[in-house]
Amino acid sequence: IAIRHGITFHGLALNVNLDLEPFGWITPCGLSGVSMTSMEQELGKSLDIKSIKVEMIDEISGIFGCTTTLASLPAGPETFPGAARRGGDDQKVRTAKPKWLKKRLPSGPAFEKTRRLVSTGKLHTVCQEARCPNQFECYGKGTATFMIMGEKCTRNCRFCAVSHAPVEPLDPEEPERIASAAADMALDYVVLTSVTRDDLPDGGAHHFVRTMQAIKARRPGTLVEILIPDLQGNETALALLCREQPAVLNHNVETVERLYPRVRPQARYYRSLQLLAAVKELNPSIVTKSGLMVGLGETGEELVETMSDIRRAGCDLLTLGQYLQPTTAHLAVKRFVPPEEFEELRAIALDLGFKGVAAGPHVRSSYRAGHLYQGALEPVR
Predict the structure, then answer these.
(1) 8 Å CB contact between 339 and 299
(2) pTM for this one?
């Protein structure tokens, strides 16, 4: 709708609950044969325009990786009127992010190439599905974390933006598509993750194996890290993955034990710890990794205890990052942890015996995964 100083400004209009009769008196936008409609007419029900504004903000912020506010809000601390929490919790607000969480959006040939490969290759990335704050940076560096087995999850963790909906059958051609993308991107280090598929007897372990094999066949020597769900404690499925010898097997504990019923109601704290310990029993040469979010209401003592539990399970690498509320339907952030506290947590984790630790507001379990692996250990090919 305008160009100022070489920057384009775009507009978007939605008819929510609108009297459409006047549009019948004109030719809308000069397009004959076109009629105007509204969300109320299409959905067959009246909608609250304020809730539509909030949903629009969440979608725009997630897609463009930016902080967006309602211009009509009064001056003062930024808050977003939100819907009730899942499970009937109290109403919540969305708090503005502190300055250390704001990032510039990169662009350029590498970003566009990665975006096109993901789009045209019918691939899913956790970067997009989970609304990762680093997706623009990683795409700009020509990297992505591939998410296999669809974009819908059988679980409904209250921190995660991945869709909870009826799942679809596995795509037998997906492993080859991912291997082709890894070859096109000339990746030396590939991270594979997945939605949780509790509907599958093996939790999707065979599909992980087929994807790893396809990558290695297409690009020999490439290191593969897998970030897996808990497989519902299925050690046979875990053994199958360990036999394929991934460079790193990552399983996130995510939060402290006390918060599991609220944050991960379908998961079990000690089941996740047992999985990490079982990997070392099945194949001691595999590097294990786990991750934690902070800012969900945990205490410092609980964090240290949880890191100690993860280390006692034989885990080699650890990531620590800030929880960010994906939408107003998810758990609210209790606290934004400043960068200096992440440095303190990193020092504590290293003292506990972890061989490599990534800690910071923007850190995620697969963020700069190859760098963490190569920096902490002698790579074994």
Answers:
(1) no
(2) 0.69
